[in-house]
Amino acid sequence: MPAVKRQSKSTAATPRVTAQSPSTTPNSKSASPSSGSGSLGLFLAILTFRLLNAFSVQTFLLPDETWQSLEVAHHMVFGTGYLTWEWAHRLRGYAHPWLFAQLYRVLTYLEERAGGLVGTSEVLIYAPVVGCGLTAAVIDWATYRFTRTWLGPAVARWALWASLVSWTMGTLMVRPLANAAETACVALALTAWPTASSSSGSSGAFPALRDLPRALAWAALGCLLRPTSALLWLGAGLQLIWHHPRWIGSILACTIPIFATALGLMLLIDHSFYGEWVFVPFNFYYFNVDQNLSAWFGTQPWYWYPAVGIPLLLTTLLPHALYGTYLVSTQPALAPFRRWLWIAAGVIAGYSALSHKEARFLSCLLPIMFALTGLGLQRHLALPARKRGRTTTASTFSLRPGALKYFIFLLITNLPVTLYTNLVHQRGVVDVVNSFRHQLHEQRSGLAQSDIAGSTPIEHILFLMPCHSTPYYSHIHYNVSLSFLGCEPPVNFNRPLAEYQYDSGSYGENPALFLHNYFDSPGSIASSPHPTSSPPSHIVIYDVDTSALLPVLHANNYTECGRFFNTHWNGDSRRRGDVVVFCRKPV
User: Fold this and answer.
1) Spatial distance between the Cα atoms of 158 and 161, rounded to a whole number of angstroms
2) Residue 34 above 90 pLDDT?
3) HEC profile of 204-254
4) Is residue 529 pLDDT above 80, yes or no?
5) Where exactly are the structural domains of the chain?
6) At a CB cut-off of 8 Å and minimum separation 6, what does 271 contact?
7) Closest residue by Cα to residue 280 from 236, 223, 234
8) How confident is the model at residue 202 (pLDDT cuts 50, 70, 90)?
9) Burial of 387 (0-12, 13-18, 19+ CB in 10 A)
């Protein structure tokens, strides 16, 4: 729970916009000797919380959290792992999965040296979780530092509190998504972004220029990991030049080499894995904007982000974010922060121009959103400094009368949702893959097999579900034949769209007919790195399809051998019910 320092009304919300003495600058490097250890202690506390948060994740929400990160890294290091159609068309950059690949390589090296102590499949599963917890902790800590610089320490504590209890942070940012890594880079860049006016200082040099390279380095890294981050930094750069026109030469001289280096690294990394020179951002633009094929994955109206996306990100914190936005827009003392409102509006407008929208695409704006939320919370719930007693200390958290109920409301509308989403909702698709991994370990170690495998060795697993419903090789790890139903968009398809056929769509139209045709030609499903003409030893389905598929399964000698609870509800009717495993009985 954040604390509000005793301070006068005039300083509680006044941001640092001009050069100040070290004693009054919120992020002064010449603060008290204990400030460094205090900052480290705060970060370690946040890190501990986020590591526990990350290890609590037992569910699977978005395909990209493994299929575009861990799965690719597993393929890069071990040679097993499915690369989706985006990689075949050069739409994805390797920089983000490359980070996880280095972790896998370190574990492999330690395995060679330690003789089986660290290189087990379990370590390969859980080691990336540490990185995810660290990423989320960096976002929390950097959001606090950014808010402290621009809006003061009292607001910063509330912004940190908002970040810590946020459903979005506790559920999405602790998963191996490129959006989380991008948001961490954005937050770190914001902590060093210049705030001083061009008139500050008398030496004739831009006072904050010493911090600009660090900010630009983090911004460039964010663009390297997720190129669409450039939209935010284009707006921030234009704002910086607008507010400091005298120093445009110095700004450009600092910006160009850093971003050129990031661009060069991106080209080198992608060349090393694609085997040719590829400019991924152009391919991504051509596919998503020029050809508008991203609409294949769903379309939303232009107003979706303000009407649905942002409320999903902030949930019950939204009213205070709006209140903070109102305060920044109307109070002269908060005017310097308005540049971030304009930058955020530009990012939202840019993403709104695309047909396909997801709330996580705006996660790069979370530090700004939490800063505004912290401002709204501090003004609404915190007791003004002039009304506190003399015994109130800087570390005391003082609430207005009646504010405690609302404070508790914010907690119970965020933390339980986070726990449910991480521990319960869609956990069966993870449990079934973990079970296969454990059984493969037993099978290849000569140990007694678990109940799910029955008397059927695991040789070929068919995930007869909508595409990307489960993690894949990154969670199974063993080199076994896997197949799933593909859902590739109609790239370079010149006939009417109604004629386009793909596995996942054909299965959804008539599951029983699809499975019957599959048994007639087992190699007909192309989404397998190890195609085989033999029928699968195990078939995984959602319970919603059991009644339709049961006659076909029984006719082909399959019987239910495992069932995993998955979710109490699902907006996608194709993914409802338990996850059910069928094993092929020996003939």
Assistant:
1) 5
2) no
3) CCCHHHHCHHHHHHHHHHHHHHCHHHHHHHHHHHHHHHHHCHHHHHHHHHH
4) no
5) 37-199+206-423, 428-584
6) 277, 278
7) 223
8) very low
9) exposed
